[in-house]
Design goal:
The chain is α+β, with helices and mostly antiparallel strands. It has 2 domains: 4-249, Nucleotidyltransferase, domain 5, CATH 3.30.420.40; 318-413 and 495-520, Methane Monooxygenase Hydroxylase, Chain G, domain 1 (Up-down Bundle). Helix content is 39%, strand content 19%. β2 and β3 (26-33) form a beta hairpin. It is globular, with a radius of gyration of 22 Å.
C-alpha cells in the first residue's frame, strides 16, 4: 500500500490537483485553466475534453512537484461543480448549445437556460420539491435535462451517457458508470433516503421517463468514500499514475469542502461550513431531516453516511466581485492580481477614512438570482448610492460595499439555519478564505466566529479524505476526516464593527422589501 492520494477539484474556471499524505498534508499542487463558452447572459458551457486535459496536466504536474512516484499513489478522488455532461452511447461528446459544435458538451452549473423548466417542476410539487426548499433551481440537473429534451431533441435521442461533471470524471478515470450519492441526491433530485430514489411518477411527470436509458444510470449510487473501480490503462497513462490506483466516487465541490471543514465533528450543534468561491454554499449537518423554505435539502448521505445536510447559498459572490471589476474598473480584468490590488487599496482607504468607508453605497448582491432565503432565480441585484466618480478609489468603494452585502446576506441565511440551536462557528473554505477583509466581514456582520483551517484548498482536502477512504487507509470515511483534518485559526467578531453593520443590515432588508414593492407595480 502506498502513502499518498490524489485529489482533483474542478471549479468554474480551473482544474486543480493536490497530492496528500495520511495526515492531510498537501505535498504538491497544480492548477490549469478550463474554458467557458458564454453566448448569452443565461448560458454557459464547458468542453469536457478540455476539462479532462486540464485534469491530467494538473495531476502530473502536482505529482512532479511533490516528488512522489506513480506507484506510491493509492487512490484518486474527484470533485467538481454541478455541471452536466452529455455523451452518446459510445461515450462521444454531444452538443448542448444551439449550434452543432460538439465541443461544448457540458452545461455549466451557473447556466440558467432552464428557468421555465425549473418553475414547471416547482409547480408539480411533491416530495422532491419539499426536499428542495419548496422551489427547484435552474442550476439543478432535472430542469436542464428537460430543456435539453425540449430544445435539442436530436441530442436527447442520441444520448446514452449523461453525467454530473464529477461522475463524468470518475467514468473517464475508471470506465465505471456508477454515480455518486452526493451528485445524484444534491443535484438530480434523487431521494437517497428512499428505496425508489425518484419519488413515484416524478420522472414521468417531468417528461423524463427514459432518463435511465439516456443517462446510462444502471444501479444505485455509490456512497462518498467508496471505490468505484481502478484506473483504466489509458487514464493511468494520461494522469501519470498506475492501474493499481483506486478511483473514489465523485462529489459536488461544495460538499467536498463541507467534508473537510466540519466532517471531523458532524455532531457539533453550533457549527456550519461556508464554501465561498464563484458562488457560496453554507451547510449544516443534522441527525434528523430539517426543512427550511428556499434551502436545498435536507439530503441524507451526501457527505457522511446517515447524516443529513441542509444547504443555503448565494448564486453570485466571487462572480459579483469579478463583475464589479469588469464594469467599474475602467478596463481592468478581474485577475487574481487585480483583486489583490483592489483589496490592498481598500485597506489603505479604510485606514485613512475609517470603518465607514463607502458607507453611502448599498448593494443587493442578487445579480444572478437569489438561492437563499428567497429561492428566486429571476430576482435582480441593485447598487444604491452611485455618483459620477469613475476613479479607481470609487470602484474600490463599490467593491468593498459589495463584500459587505455578501456578509449581510450570509447573516440573513445563518439566522434561518438555527434548527439545532444557534450557529456559533462558521468554518470558511474556498477562495473567500484568502480574502482576509471578507473573512472579517463575515465574522462582524454575522456576529459569529469564523474558523479557517483548510482555507482555499478545502475542496481538495475533502476529496483527499474521500480518496483515503476508498484506498482503505481508515476503517471509515469519518475516521479519515478525523485523521486528516487541519487545525483552525479563529477570527472572532468585533462588537463595535458589528454594531456599525447593524444599520447596513436594516438598509439591506429595506432594499429587499422595496424591490418586492417595485416588482408588484403594474
Amino acid at each position: 500500500m502506498g502513502r499518498y492520494v490524489v485529489a482533483v477539484d474542478v471549479g468554474t474556471g480551473s482544474a486543480r490537483a493536490g497530492i496528500f499524505d495520511r495526515r492531510g498534508e498537501m505535498l504538491g499542487r497544480a492548477s490549469f485553466p478550463i474554458e467557458m463558452n458564454r453566448t448569452s447572459r443565461q448560458s454557459a458551457e464547458h468542453d469536457s475534453e478540455d476539462i479532462w486535459a486540464a485534469v491530467t496536466r494538473a495531476v502530473s504536474t502536482a505529482r512532479d512537484e511533490a516528488g512522489v512516484a506513480a506507484g506510491e499513489i493509492d487512490a484518486i478522488g474527484f470533485d467538481a461543480t454541478c455541471s452536466l455532461t452529455v455523451r452518446d452511447s459510445e461515450g462521444l461528446p454531444l452538443p448542448v448549445s444551439q449550434n452543432d459544435d460538439p465541443r461544448w458538451d457540458t452545461i455549466a452549473w451557473l447556466d440558467h437556460r432552464a428557468l421555465e423548466q425549473a418553475e414547471e417542476l416547482t409547480a408539480l410539487g411533491g416530495e422532491m420539491v419539499k426536499h428542495s426548499g419548496g422551489s427547484i433551481s435552474p442550476e439543478m440537473q432535472i430542469p436542464k435535462l428537460m430543456w435539453l429534451k425540449s430544445h435539442r431533441p436530436d441530442v436527447w435521442n442520441r444520448a446514452g451517457m449523461i453525467f454530473d461533471l464529477a461522475d463524468f470524471l470518475t467514468w473517464r478515470a475508471s470506465g465505471s458508470l456508477t454515480r455518486s450519492v452526493c451528485t445524484m441526491t444534491a443535484k438530480w433530485n434523487y431521494l437517497s433516503h428512499t428505496e425508489e430514489g425518484w419519488p413515484g411518477d416524478f420522472l414521468d411527470r417531468a417528461g423524463l421517463a427514459e432518463l435511465g436509458t439516456r443517462a446510462g444510470i444502471t444501479d444505485i449510487p455509490a456512497q462518498v468514500g467508496a471505490c468505484v473501480g481502478m484506473l483504466t490503462a489509458s487514464a493511468a497513462q494520461s494522469l501519470g499514475l498506475t492501474t493499481n490506483c483506486k478511483v473514489a466516487s465523485g462529489m459536488v465541490d461544495a460538499y467536498a469542502g463541507q467534508l473537510a471543514l466540519t466532517g471531523k465533528d458532524p455532531d457539533s450543534r453550533n457549527e456550519a461550513g461556508l464554501i465561498g468561491g464563484t458562488s457560496s454554499c453554507v451547510m449544516r449537518f443534522s441527525k434528523e431531516p430539517q426543512f427550511i423554505k428556499s434551502f436545498w435539502g435536507p439530503y441524507r448521505d451526501v457527505v457522511l453516511p446517515d447524516w443529513w445536510v441542509i444547504e443555503g447559498g448565494q448564486s453570485a459572490t466571487g462572480a459579483l466581485l469579478d463583475h464589479i471589476v469588469r464594469v467599474h474598473g475602467a478596463g481592468l480584468e478581474p485577475t487574481p492580481e487585480t483583486h489583490d490590488l483592489v483589496l490592498e487599496r481598500i485597506r489603505d482607504l479604510i485606514a485613512e477614512t475609517g470603518e465607514g468607508f463607502g458607507g453611502s453605497i448599498h448593494v443587493l448582491p442578487d445579480f444572478h438570482g437569489n438561492r437563499s432565503p428567497l429561492g428566486d432565480a429571476r430576482v435582480l441585484g441593485a447598487i444604491h448610492g452611485l455618483t459620477l466618480d469613475g476613479s479607481f478609489d470609487a470602484m474600490c468603494a463599490i467593491y468593498y460595499r459589495a463584500m459587505v452585502s455578501l456578509a449581510l446576506g450570509m447573516r440573513q441565511i445563518l439566522d434561518l439555519m438555527e434548527f439545532d440551536g444557534p450557529v456559533e462557528t462558521l468554518h470558511l473554505g474556498g477562495g473567500h478564505a484568502r480574502n482576509t477583509l471578507l473573512a472579517r466581514l463575515y465574522a462582524d456582520a454575522t456576529r459569529r466566529q469564523v474558523a479557517i483551517s483548510a482555507g482555499e484548498e478545502a475542496m481538495l482536502l475533502g476529496t483527499a479524505m474521500a480518496a483515503a477512504s476508498a484506498a482503505g487507509w481508515y476503517p471509515s470515511l469519518a475516521e479519515a476526516c478525523q485523521a486528516m483534518a487541519r487545525p483552525a485559526n479563529i477570527i472572532p467578531p468585533n462588537e463595535i464593527r458589528a454594531m456599525a453593520l447593524d444599520r447596513d443590515y436594516h438598509v439591506f432588508l429595506k432594499m429587499q422589501e422595496q424591490r418586492r414593492e417595485l416588482a408588484a407595480i403594474v
